[in-house]
Amino acid sequence: MLEYRIEIALWALSGVLPFIMFSLWSQNDVGNSFGLNDTGLARYFLSAFLVRQFSVVWVVFSFEEDSLSGRLSPYLLQPLHPLFRYVASHLAEQATRLPFAIAIAITFFILNPSSFWLPSLPQLFLAYLSTHFAFTIAFLLQSLVAALCFWTEKSSALERLIFVPYLFLSGLLVPLSAFPSYVLKVAMLTPFPYLINFPAKILSGMPVDIFNGFLAQILWISILVPSVNILWKLGVKRYTAMGA
Amino acid sequence: MHNNPSDLIVVDQLSKYYRVANKQPGFKGTLKHFFDRKTYDVPAVTDISFKISPGEVVGFLGANGAGKTTLLKMMCGLIYPSKGLVDVGGFSPQRRQTAFLKEITLVMGQKQQLIWDLPPMDSLYVNAAIYGLSDHEAKVRINELAEMLELGEELTRPVRKLSLGQRMKSEILAALLHKPSVLFLDEPTLGLDVNAQARVRSFLSEYNKRTGATILLTSHYMADITALCPRVICIHKGKLFYDGDLDSLANSLSPSREVKVELKNPCASEQFEKYGEIQDLNDRFVCLLVSRDKLTDVVSNLLTDFDIIDLEISDPPIDELIGELFIKGKVN
Hints:
The complex is a heterodimer of chains A (244) and B (332). Chain A has 244 residues and is mostly helical. Chain A has helices at residues 2-13, 17-27, 38-53, 59-69, 72-76, 82-111, 121-147, 149-152, 160-169, 181-187, 197-204, 210-236. The longest helix of chain A has 30 residues, at 82-111. Chain A starts with a helix and ends in an 8-residue tail after the last helix. Chain B is of the alpha/beta class. In chain B, a hairpin with a 2-residue loop joins strand 8 and strand 9. The longest helix of chain B has 18 residues, at 194-211. Chain B starts with 8 loop residues before the first strand and ends with a helix. Chain B has helices at 26-35, 68-76, 98-101, 120-130, 135-148, 164-176, 194-211, 222-228, 246-253, 295-305, 318-328; strands at residues 9-21, 39-52, 57-61, 83-88, 104-108, 182-186, 214-218, 231-236, 239-245, 256-263, 277-282, 285-291, 308-314. In chain B, helix 4 packs parallel to helix 6.
């Protein structure tokens, strides 16, 4: 079972993109133009890393594989919506990521001692809550694409339509404060800033509009839940139980 | 179709069409397929009607692509019919209501609901939670089914480490954990060796006797059908062409029986022509095909007219008869 332990460690390590971006922005000293000094930048990207660890979603790929291989068939005949199986598997993986994420955070503080900080308990609670909401939004967005499997069979290709704006507008590559105000205004109308930028700002202690942030997250969830439900109901009528 | 309260399953003029598109080979074909795709409907099941009573074990026979699996998928609610009606215990299967799902199960050959990297026991407790069974109920039920299926330590080994037969039995255990009263089994013995097939068959027979569950089964192994299904439904190119008991089917397919005789002394073939069609004559051994209505007279005459050491009467192999039936697509 050694392979599985290594795989879990690699999962955690595979989310190091925020550290690469931190290294890039801090070396070029452009952090100041984002309104952040090196410490602020380090804290933001560490927070972005942690938020991503607990909000990353891959349901579209698992669902597509299950749908094409016929494994979805027995799930559809159980008295539990198949999407809950994927939720459970994501939550289980988040739990296994926790020790690795803590180890990576400790290593980060050893390498950047000046960036060390401990968020207050209310800060931690709000960051935890907003990360869970972020996970819910990301999960619902991907479920929406996954449901297209009932029509296209290869919906993972469509996932790129979400991934590209997610990459640029979520705050994973750069804090959103780096964008010109008109881009920022448009970005804030999408769900993406609430997936990384908003929870990461809360965790790192950066100034953030907590009330409107949570309101936007709840709004997106309340739009996406019925959308997924409707698309699923329409799609499942087309299911032909391929490969089964 | 009038629904009798004693009917558990009512299928009335059920049809299913699949929309497909053909692609020509090569780059040109790919471009044409992308920009000007022509789709058409392929009928998988056409206007099929039948009824099934509670506790029946019914076998669905047909060649590959005949429509039996599609029919099974519609009856369990996995796919939507294009036309017609299915009623299973008062439920419309495609609505997949919780009360309906708790009453049925589907086993599809090697399609696993067990989690590959974990022992079956973990998947079994997940299933128990999904069906609302308490830990105690689940434990009792697992022990009972494990005993019937002769499963022991295998349940605590990762699924990927189990043999095909052990995996299939574990799949069946997982599928029956919630005590379903209607079992849809699509090729439940596919790929298993002869011994494993026999164990699965005897388990299903025992399960039907103990619980009174209704079993609907497709299989390419005639031994499954002959051992389990008193009633068969034959499908050819999406259409039903026989619904009745297996013995009557064998009688209609072959109105004759084989009579094998071992003689004390060799005899000429002409001496047997009046008794029936000579299938084989080899020194002291004769095999005759005798029509069923003349069987008693012929056997009695043979015993009187010849010095016979041994005499055996048998049906022609059902596999061969059904094979011919699939080619013809009709019963005489």
